[in-house]
Design goal:
By secondary structure, the protein is of the alpha+beta class. It folds into four domains: 120 residues, Topoisomerase II, domain 5; 83 residues, Gyrase A, domain 2 (2-Layer Sandwich), CATH 3.30.1360; 117 residues, Topoisomerase, domain 3 (Orthogonal Bundle); 369 residues, Neuraminidase, CATH 2.120.10. 28% of the residues lie in helices and 25% in strands. The chain has 19 helices and 46 strands. The strands form 14 sheets. Strands 22, 23, 41, 42 and 44 form a five-stranded mixed sheet that branches. It has a four-stranded mixed sheet with strand order 16-11-10-19. Strands 12-13-15-14 form a four-stranded antiparallel sheet, with helices on one face. It is elongated, with a radius of gyration of 40 Å. The C terminus is likely disordered.
Length: 871
């Protein structure tokens, strides 16, 4: 390589390609490190860090007055960031925009722009100060927790990284374009990120999937809905992923038969107004007839929130138009996550675990350096106090030495030689004021000395134990989560095919009802309120004159429902597969869900989660036949035409099915008031496609209407068709054996009507009583009188003229409900019960008739024996 001597310098002969490569790489690394990419530890670029440090220099704490942004920009540019003022002000504005930053680090006052794309006002008009959470970014800077470096002119010092007491890189995200690379990190929920960091500390071997149990996904400041988990998982695992985000929209009916699409949240970084905003894009599509179903558009946003109103033409399907909007407008966008950040000054693409690992390591270093700083400060002060104690113990001699010295230097040397003090201790003693020699001041010195000895011991133990350092990190993160954490704004909805349909369905209690003519629906159990006995209830369904509710149960949306029909077949569906309706709606015809034959009707419905609730299934027919079968035998792959539950004899029908443990007693109750009790082992277990054995002997014209499992600690509650009922201890029913008539369970008179329901109940349970007109009353069983078997009962539900009771069902509750005076009324959970929604007791509408109780009391208990002898 030739060199030309110019006397005062050299010209080096280099290849142009080599020079361009070297110069461009120097420029690229300068942009990457000094401008475009955030540091993995604090999530800040140099300009962000310098703006925040300038604001701390100016003392702009959250409890101090706002100052002009121009003041901050000027100081930052003059001391730390010698670039254009517009770049600094743009940074300051973004740090304070609530729609751009999930947790703004600048508290703003004035016009800082909006989601329509309007820019902020000039810096001379706007004001700012640090936000409370920004203080946590800068906390302990004066305790040597991070390194400092000279500014551009070496007149000032500035931090190379912030302490960042919360994971700012993930909480607020970051975006930047460097040379040959770019970064785009989405914001997250602070609570979730902190939970993920703590989980990583507790288990350094944690996997990405385990971290995602804590960190669900990005949480944008503008809300929205994330469609699918695949992009999130890719970003967390590999640092790159495509995350699809939709606006939040719902449909509202308008006057005149129109529908309107209402948009309340937009995807992150999507503008509402302006020439390139979503409103302009929709208007353009309507004008070009790409979307033809829109009649009008209006921006109804105000201080209460965003509201974009899109009115549709008459007859247009709102879902179709909404899908067109998602396809052709920014109402659905893709956030390309590209997690590139600086690690030790080198750009790297990192996944979620690596990001949290680097942050936790940074916090460990911050805590360690802070502890060392505090230890050194405590030791320095302790050293001085030890000198004070020596002086106080030798006060007269110290005073004599000082008085006998020619000057301060001589006094210092004399003290050091006389008492073995260090120069620092001697200077401190010479600086003592006379008031420090009082007894009170001496006691304070000794007290402070003792506290410092304990503090030094504590700090040394922290430095000697890495687990204690991590414990401090966890405690401080948890405290920040409690102070600044908030609820998630962005909903995450798994995309089609990612999860099973059931995983997308919220689990809740549903009341399932089937009418006499075969209409089925499910309604949330919270729809019905509790009432005392004698209330008139609330409307549970609008039925036809010749229809009424025949079957009703409460089950979770994730349960299986087994439909046992009159012909002895069983069909299986999930609760969430049943049509959902409102309280007054009739629902959908059962024949549209189940392949029922002509004349086949649903007789019993049983809910189960996994066929483990009981060992056997005992079935009964109205002719008194019973059959016992292993419950697991019904856990078969679903067939479109159902499976055989029991072989029914001609002229007979299935009336009920119960789960048993194999050691239970079975109760059968007939319409004319008889109940038989027998050991279930008297009926041997049979296969599914079999008949049964005689369970109850019936007199002419009678039939079995209910089957239940006996429990001597419980009551048998019976309800008649005219609204009367009572509870009788199950222990009063003797075991008569299978195939007998049993004993009397209620004395029936014409005014009471025949029995329509019989259920074994326990204290603090509730029942739903349904009439043929569709009236539903929710009643605590404690409000129904407990009487002996041969009594007539009391009024349970007052019926409107011409109405009758059609069905009775149990409500499982395991939560507290409000009592009549607002007092909490705890309800004990049933075994395996799913918690029901909260209900509220309302005052009685109709009091129980006193004469009903009087009639019951007048009955002679000896009638019981007479009835048993007769039957």
């Amino acid at each position: 390589m030739a060199t030309i001597d110019l006397g005062d310098g050299n010209i080096e002969d280099r290849e142009l390609v080599e020079e361009m490569r070297s110069s461009y790489m120097d420029y690229a690394m300068s942009v990457i490190v000094g401008r475009a990419l955030p540091d993995v530890r604090d999530g800040l670029k140099p300009v962000h860090r310098r703006v925040l440090f300038t604001m701390q220099d100016l003392g702009l704490q959250p409890n101090r007055p706002y100052v002009k942004c121009a003041r901050v920009v000027g100081d930052c540019m003059g001391k730390y960031h010698p670039h254009g003022d517009s770049a600094i002000y743009d940074t300051l504005v973004r740090l304070g925009q609530t729609f751009a930053s999930r947790y703004p680090l600048v508290d703003t006052q004035g016009n800082f722009g909006n989601i329509d794309g309007d820019p902020a006002a000039a810096m001379r008009y706007t004001e700012c100060r640090l936000s409370p959470i920004a203080v946590e970014m800068l906390r302990d800077l004066d305790e040597d927790v991070v390194d400092f470096e000279p500014n551009y002119d070496e007149q000032n010092q500035m931090p190379t990284v912030m302490p960042a007491r919360f994971p700012n890189l993930l909480a607020n995200g970051s975006a930047g374009i460097a040379v040959g690379m770019a970064t785009n990190i989405p914001p997250h929920n602070l609570r979730e990120i902190i939970a993920g960091a703590i989980a990583l500390i507790d288990n350094p071997q944690i996997t990405t999937d385990e971290l995602m149990e804590h960190v669900k996904g990005p949480d944008f400041p503008t809300g929205g809905v994330i469609m699918g988990l695949a992009g999130i998982r890719d970003a967390y695992e590999h640092g790159r992923g495509r995350i699809r985000v939709r606006a939040v929209a719902h449909i509202e009916p308008q006057k005149g038969g129109h529908d309107a699409i209402i948009i309340t949240e937009l995807p992150y970084q999507v503008r509402k107004g302006g020439d390139d905003g979503v409103l302009a894009k929709i208007a353009e599509l309507v004008h070009e007839k790409v979307i033809t179903g829109i009649r009008d558009i209006a921006d109804q946003s105000d201080r209460n929130g965003m509201r974009i109103w899109i009115e549709l033409k008459r007859g247009e399907m709102a879902k179709v138009v909404l899908n067109q909007l998602y396809k052709h407008t920014p109402l659905q966008t893709t956030f390309g996550a590209n997690v590139v950040t600086l690690v030790g000054g080198t750009p790297r693409t990192l996944g979620l675990k690596a990001l949290l690992r680097h942050y936790v390591d940074h916090q460990k270093e911050v805590i360690t350096r802070r502890t060392k700083f505090r230890l050194q400060r405590a030791q320095d002060r302790l050293h001085v106090l030890e000198g004070y104690l020596i002086a106080l113990d030798n006060l007269d001699r110290v005073i004599a030495v000082i008085r006998g010295s020619a000057d301060g230097d001589a006094a210092r040397e004399s003290l050091m030689s006389e008492f073995g003090l260090s120069e620092l201790q001697a200077r401190a003693i010479l600086d003592l004021r006379l008031r420090a020699l009082t007894a009170l001041q001496q006691d304070e010195v000794r007290k402070e000395h003792g506290e410092l000895v304990a503090l030094v011991t504590e700090l040394r133990s922290i430095l000697a134990d890495e687990a204690r350092v991590y414990a401090i990190v966890k405690d401080e993160l948890s405290e920040l989560g409690r102070r600044f954490g908030d609820d998630r704004r962005t909903e995450i909805v798994p995309a089609e095919g990612e999860l099973d349909l059931e995983q997308l369905i919220r689990e809740e209690d549903m009341v399932i009802s089937i009418t006499q003519t075969g209409y089925i629906k499910r309604v949330a159990a919270s729809t019905y309120r509790q009432q005392k006995r004698g209330g008139v209830g609330v409307m549970g369904m609008d039925t036809k004159d010749d229809d009424w509710i025949e079957h009703l149960l409460v089950a979770s949306t994730h349960d299986y429902v087994l439909f046992f029909t009159s012909v002895g077949k069983v069909y299986r569906l999930k609760v969430h597969e049943l049509p959902e309706g409102n309280r007054q709606g009739r629902g959908r015809a059962v024949v549209n869900l189940l392949p029922l034959r002509e004349g086949e009707r649903v007789r019993t419905v049983i809910a189960t989660r996994d066929f483990s609730e009981g060992l056997y299934l005992v079935q009964a027919t109205k002719g008194g036949i019973v059959k016992k079968t292993l419950f697991k035998e019904y856990d078969t792959p679903r067939k479109s035409d159902g499976i055989i539950a029991i072989n029914i004899r001609e002229g007979d029908e299935l009336i009920g099915v119960r789960l048993t443990s194999g050691e239970d007693d079975v109760l059968l109750t007939s319409r004319k008031g008889q109940t038989v009790r027998f050991d279930e082992n008297e009926a041997r277990a049979m296969g599914r496609a079999t008949g049964g054995v005689i369970g109850m002997k019936l007199r002419k014209g009678d039939e079995v209407i209910a089957i239940d499992v006996a429990d001597d600690t419980a009551d048998l509650l019976v309800i008649t068709e005219n609204g009367y009922g009572k509870r009788t201890r199950v222990s009063e029913y003797p075991r008569k054996g299978r195939g007998t008539m049993g004993v009397l369970t209620i004395r029936l008179v014409e005014a009471r009507g025949a029995i329509v329901g019989a259920i074994v109940v326990r204290p603090r349970q509730e029942i739903l009583v349904i009439s043929e007109s569709g009236t539903v009353q929710r009643t605590a069983v404690d409000g129904i009188s407990q009487m002996s078997r041969a009594t007539q009962g009391v009024i349970v539900q007052r019926l409107r003229e011409g109405d009758r009771i059609s069905a009775v069902a149990m409500v499982d509750t395991s939560v507290e409900v409000d009592g009549p005076e607002g007092e909490p009324l705890p309800l004990e959970p049933l075994d395996g019960a799913v918690p029901a929604a909260d209900v509220t007791v309302i005052p009685d509408v109709v009091d129980a008739l006193a004469e009903d109780d009087a009639d019951a009391d007048e009955l002679d208990q000896d009638d019981d024996a007479d009835e048993e002898a007769e039957y």
